[in-house]
Amino acid sequence: MASLTRRKFIKITKSAILGSAVVVGSSAIMGRAGEASVGDDKGDGPVTGEMTIPSYCDVCFMGCGINVTVRNGRAIKIEGNPTHPISRGKLCPRGAGGLGQLYDPDRLKTPLLRIGKLGSEEFKAVSWDEALEYIAGKMKSIKDEHGPESLALLKHGKGADPFVRLWHAIGSKTEGHPSYAQCRGARDTGWSLTFGKGPGGVERVGLDKAEVVAFIGAHLGENMHNVTVQDYTTGLRNGSRHIVVDPRFSTTASKAKYWLPIKPGTDIALLLAWMHVLIYEDLYDFEFVEEYTTGFDQLQKHVEYTTPEWAATYTGLDANTIRDTARELGEVAPKSMVFPGRRFAWYGDDTQRARAMAIINALLGAWGKESGIYLGDKIKIPKFPYPEVDHDAVHALDVKGKYPLGQSTPVQDIIEASIPGKTDTTWQNAPVKGWLVYSTNLVKAVPNAEIIAEAAQHLDLLVVVETMPSEITGYADVVLPDTTYLERFDVMNAPEWKEPFVSIRQPVVKPLYQSKPSWWIAKRLADKLGLGEFFNYQNFSEVIDYQLRQLGSSLKDINQKGGVLKKDFEEPKMRFKTPSRKVELYSKQMEKEGFDPMPRFQKHKSPPDGYYRLLYGRVPQHTFSRTTNNSMLLEVHPENKVWVHPEIAAVHNMKDGDYIVLKNRKGVKSNRVRVMVTKRIRQDCVYMAHGFGRTERRLTKGFKVGADDNGLLTEYSLDPITGTTGSQVNFVTFV
Amino acid sequence: MARYAMTIDLTTCVACDACVLACKMENNVPDGYHRDWTEQKLTETSQGMELEMFSNRCHHCKSAPCVAVCPTGASYIKDGIVLIDRDLCVGCRQCISGCPYGARYYHPASFVDKCTFCDHRLGTNRGPACVEVCPTNSLVFGDVSDQDSEIFKLLKNRESKVLLAEKKTKPKYYFLTSTIKKATKAVA
After folding, report:
1. For residues A78 and A670, what is the distance between their CA atoms, to the nearest angstrom?
2. pLDDT tens digits for A20-46?
3. Which residues of chain A have a CB within 8 Å of the CB of B34?
4. ipTM score for this prediction
5. Distance from B45 to chain A by nearest Cα, in Å?
6. Closest residue, chain A, to B36 (C-alpha)
7. CB neighbourhood size of A121 (10 A)
8. CA A8 to chain centre
């Protein structure tokens, strides 16, 4: 063995530092983070020594607890926080790669004011004061001339909260988030119509305890929502049997007992057949149905004809397989469930698909079971003594008038209301004239995204608050550099969960460049608008500290506890906030509004000859376009590929690894993208991961890497119940 | 004497690369290099398709060819862990070509580098970074000479295999297979 030379000594010492668990919660360390005004105007961050600071992640929106190691003011490592109930010391690759976002040299560095014509992307750097003065002036004139509702807030994530407050103070409730119209809107609405509430933002699903689970297109393992994946794999280890319904042999399918490569667009037929088998073979949870549901007799009659043989003709699946899988679910009920899924807007009948999935869960008795969709408990975050805002503001975009059963405003309605004459009469009284876009790259998130360019032409003001240059910043009048989640305080996270908790987000390093946290921006804007009284704090840390003190803790105390505060779980009562106070298998609410009270199968268009349905999804390493310029994540997943069945590849003379270009029926072409020739996809569709093919030139790593699925989604099928935008209705071919 | 080893559960690994990123941060691995990586292998059988997904790294072989070919004695084994003494490494890279698993790389600071099972964490209450981060709990690290260890019990109770067994390197990175499902057949 070599002697201990100096070089080796240094190595060992360094390793010792790396390896030594810096005690999270040592007050000498944490007192600093807790008390310092990091993230405020002074940006007084930690500067020397090594420390570990707890916070919660924002690379996706699950809010996993993280511990960040900081040495000499530089974050060097992100790890899962072991005391945090939804990370349990674990992280997904995106969370582990968060430093690639913080230290991305392409970040927006100063406020920018557009000097060229719209879309020219010619900006000049300006001071914060100049930028905010400009924005406040425009906001005032829009408010005076058109009313406050003409100011729209388009947003995603916890960082948007101060802007929501500002919007309410102004008197506008014109707010929308693409995560409603594209992702959870139809799902949560369908579940709420059935159970009175949804399965939760961090889904309350007992995948670890269920014996049989059906996944309808959900692709866990590629979708890496940390705690969900942890419970999913615990289930696999415990012998859970999975039924995966997907046109693609996904990671989830590869680990399942059954893979049902369904014909796209026919899921409701399969779900109705499963209901038929469960009911007519007496495999449903009789006690649950008897005690908690209403409308069983109607449902029984409704699915009398929806036999496996009937569904087989539409789904392309074998009738026996449909029957077998229904029996798998029913025989172990209530220890089985249909997983709720996300990114739910597919075909325009998505609320009905959500209803069908919810109804099966009711038949299985899965609601309220720890092996199913369990009931969570939560710590209620106390109110900060903000002055009351005027909640009587007119709803300019009358979402309840247009979608009485919906839960939010679909973003495309706000976009359309920005284009004169585009929107229908009920929405015309207050045209939208100004947008503030917070942390959502609309151009890569909304189908038929070309309408954004059109809308931008008519706006008096378009402000984008972002950490990165992106496709939407290209249309902005003013671009404001946001801090990343590692440089700011945000509202606390306290979801309904099996271990109720509150966790904090706090700055671990000083804001880089001239970036500012959203609370700072909203507060300064409020000052300039004469609404400063609604932001009655100097630093957002005061709000968090106040709220924690109402819970018997403080910012300093929660830091000493590893950034998380917990309480004992109290089992909530089985209550259903539906009109009947029962689980509504038959929905009178829907009937009253003119919709099918029970889900009905309708056929969707098949691709024309030579065209293939474009399906999209995730890879584990990326979250939408948020991460496709992150060097750490690009290193492990550099570009997306388009999956094509070998028979189709042969027809179009393509080999695995070839670069090709896709074209949709409107003639829109993709960037070049590699083909992955594989039997893992049906012949009638192609598949690619979302978020690639960036068109923003200032993204030095992501620009023109891979193809953008969203650009090819020029058509969508509107869900009449929610206004959500089903996007799996686009057909593509190869150029 | 301890004999450290690692297992990966093929029934649960999704090849997400969290292990790769955690390792890079923990061990300060330079951009463009890695000590561990993930692989996916699709095989078609008459039964259908089978997808094997796994994280891969140094197999810490008992009969390690990298140690055998090293002319300076820089590569050595301690407690079952194959390590490199950077002072003795002259950067000849014979070990890189000698490793059947492709587990070694030439570090830009002029030495050969590879997975160490995060040996700097031994004696603390923390395991290797890849094991800690793994959101599917697919990796287990431990001392196979300790009959009370989780890894000992896993290897006793589950079927396992090693890669490239025919090379007779006696690897200590075990792939747990016993509960792996039969190939998933499309049941259209």
Report:
1. 35
2. 333 333 333 333 343 333 333 333 444
3. 635
4. 0.95
5. 12
6. A636
7. 17
8. 47
